[in-house]
Amino acid sequence: MDAKKNTSLEARGPKRAARYDLAIIGAGPGGYTAALYAAQKGLKTCLIEQEQIGGVCLNTGCIPTKTYYKSAYFLEQIKQSDKVGVNIPNFSVDLKKINEHRQNIIKKLSDGVKLLLEKRGVDVILGKAVFDSPGILKVDRQLIEAADIIIASGSKDIELSSMPFSDDIASSKTVWDFHEIPKQLLIVGGGVIGCEMANIFSEFGSKVTIVEAQDLLLPAIDMDISKKLAVILKRKGVNVLTSQKVESVEDNTVVISNAKRIFFDKAIVCVGREPVFRDLFLENIGVVIDRKKINVDKFLRTNIKNIYAIGDCNGKSMLAHVASFEAIVAVDNILGKKREMDYSSVPNCIFTSPEIATCGISEKEMTNDMQISKVMYSSLGKAHTANKTDGFIKIIFEKRSLIVFGVSIMGENATELITHASFLISQKKTIEDILQTIYAHPTFSEIFSEAAHAAIGFPINSI
Question: Could you tell me what percent of the chain has a pLDDT over 70?
Fold first, then answer.
């Protein structure tokens, strides 16, 4: 429903409730996927969104970040092109054109989602939803009655009290408002977003400093990868400061734990995200909330039998592809399939250079009956032809059964390769299954074959 219609409704007061089989709150990857799938399955569906179709991922998160990443990647290749016999003496970075490219991609994808919703007969209602009862939502002054409701309200950047967002202190949502490349860029938080931004802006020409409170970048990732990334970022000129916190900020200078003062033109604060759902008034209808997330069971249902929560708001895994998968699972359960959500094979991708991707358990989660096979990218012919030998794969498997339980990759195309690992883990495949698979040559995917051979003590192309 457009804004004009909403205005007229407000002027007339509440309208008789529009009735649906399914109402979905939030039009991010989880919400719009649920809407499209439910409509295909024959459910009369509405999708409610108070900001932008596509949510954070499409508009200010995944898609714009990867657009910037690709520009940074091209820059990196240009800087190294003389190694492969291509001399490019003059090049420059045009942030205005990069942003135009970003905006064009967002519009194309957003328009595509809107068209799909229209073609599938999903009613898109623009406005802020609140619960009136477990089966009735109020959107402005319109009432929506639904047999089932999916909450897909997303998350927002955590703001530091010591460093509130401003014109010069951006969140991951407002970093796209930079009109020029900062000369001195401070990044607070060395997690996924912080490391991606450090990689991008260091390639763009910023002098980047990362301040991370823990003793490693990417503290949740494989330790070897964390250490290697710090080395690579330092090689790019990034000043990496771990075990440090921002104590205070005055004008454009921060003071960190060791009393060091750091000046910045611009700063990006990316210390995590928190679920958004408080404005829905869930407590009024008895939905159980565990601290800062909506409680759900293995079927993604809340304690109220007709209300489900998917994506960032349930706190399980703040990844767009998880939200999309949860959307399908939730709709299947609404249709009576009794389908459980399994998080054991979720791929996690980090778009630095080289790329990082993980799936399943990490080395620190291993049990005594497991072991690791680690192989370097330098064992691959493709890595040498692409001038991308910096990287490795780790496969964690059970010694007796040879079942694969975890994979970590750092290297070129890691974010594409990890889906193969997700398949192996989800299907409980073994090292023997990998050995029985023919991998094309020369490709980066051969790293799986080489690691499998190494796992049984017979590496082919590595020592």
Answer: 97
As a whole number of angstroms, the distance between CA 140 and CA 130 comes to 9
Query: C-alpha angle 117/120/124, rounded to 5°?
Result: 40
Residues 6+ apart with CB under 8 A from 137: 23, 25, 48, 129, 130, 131, 143, 144, 145, 146, 149
Chain segment 235-254, per-residue pLDDT in tens: 999 999 999 999 999 999 99
How many residues in total does the chain contain?
A: 463
One-letter amino acid for residue 68 of the chain: Y
Q: What is the pLDDT of residues 294-331, one digit of tens each?
A: 999 999 999 999 999 999 999 999 999 999 999 999 99
**What average pLDDT score do residues 434-449 get?**
98
72-93 pLDDT tens trace: 999 999 999 999 999 998 999 9
CA angle 98, 100, 105 (to 5 degrees): 95
Rounded to whole angstroms, the Cα distance separating 324 from 316 reads 13
CA distance linking residue 107 with residue 132, whole number of Å: 34
How far apart are alpha carbons 198 and 97 in whole angstroms?
A: 20
Summarize the confidence of residues 389-408 as an average pLDDT.
Answer: 97
Q: Identify any residues that bridge with 397 across adjacent strands, giving them in sequence order.
A: 371, 404
**Closest to 316 (Cα-Cα) out of 296, 330, 331, 288:** 296
For residue 123, the cross-strand partners are 46
pLDDT tens, residue by residue, 131-147: 999 999 999 889 999 99
Would you say the C-alpha torsion 170, 176, 180, 181 has a positive or negative sign? positive
The answer to whether the CB of 391 falls within 8 A of the CB of 222 is no
DSSP assignment of 105-168, as one string? HHHHHHHHHHHHHHHTTPEEEES-EEEEETTEEEETTEEEEEEEEEE---EEEPPBTTB---SS
On whether the pTM is more than 0.90, the answer is yes
Cβ distance 38 to 146 under 8 Å? no
Q: Return d(Cα 210, Cα 239) in angstroms, integer.
A: 6
Collapsing DSSP to helix, strand or coil, 30 comes out as helix
Beta strand pairing status for 123-126 and 392-398? unpaired
- Find the catalytic residue in 321, 384, 420, 441: 441
405: three-class secondary structure by DSSP: strand
Average model confidence (pLDDT) for the chain? 94
Measure the CA–CA gap between 235 and 76, rounded to whole angstroms. 13
* Residue 441 among the catalytic residues: yes
